[in-house]
């Protein structure tokens, strides 16, 4: 029995690959109608939507450049025009952009990393929250990173900084929006096998990171997706402003 009602709609940003794609598939499996978002990976996004539809779910693909406020606002407007509502927002879009040490980080790279990872979430969340406030309900799940807790690996300082700010934003939003019936939470994935690491982490770096995980392996996207679905559902109805660590014991509180 699906855990979401038939009218439930989820917008998952950056859902063409990796954790976002896994989240879109898992939310759809539990009955949510999913807005699959991409920026440049059109074929991958349509493949995700096809898998959802083949499994009996509903998915619509939307393109949007979230590195600017106009593109983010247009995406939300397009989803609302197409589906009429957004019950769950998963702020997943993001990228390391490039591994650079401090003295090689240009002002442009710094701005790009902040726009892609932090500002994009703000720009999408604001109009979605306005819609949810009108309806008096909703869930927002921010995909941060273990880098927000440990500063990230060498060359990832801007990304880690953006994710730390996103984690802080989660708590601020949670306090502000819970009075409107909107729950905001976050997850901190650790080392997860995704195209992110295929692009930005060498085999040597990956092996070094995995060696620090007590569980002895990297995580899978589906393991993060299951937590996202849980946080989006009424099964987590008393969880507000939390950040869930998903890292195989790599970092423990």
- What is the C-alpha radius of gyration, as a whole number of Å? 17 Å
Low-confidence stretches: none
Total number of β-strand segments? Answer: 7
- What characteristic shape results from the CA principal axes? globular
Arithmetic mean pLDDT? 96
Number of helices: 9
Distance between the termini: 34 Å
Question: How are the strands ordered across the major sheet?
Answer: 3-2-1-4-5-6-7
Largest sheet: 7 strands, parallel
What percentage of residues falls in helices of 4 or more residues? 40-55%
Q: Strand portion, in percent?
A: 5-15%
Listing every helix as H and every strand as E from the N terminus to the C terminus, the arrangement reads EHEHEHEHEHHEHHHE
Q: State the secondary-structure class.
A: alpha/beta
Comma- or semicolon-separated keywords:
single chain; 253 residues; alpha/beta; 9 helices
Walkthrough of the structure:
The chain has 253 residues and is α/β, with parallel strands linked by helices. The protein is built from 9 helices and 7 strands. It has a 7-stranded parallel β-sheet, with helices on both faces. Helix 4 (107-135) links the parallel strand 4 and strand 5 (138-143).
Summarize the structure.
The chain contains 9 helices and 7 strands. It is of the alpha/beta class and 253 residues long. The longest helix has 29 residues, at 107-135.
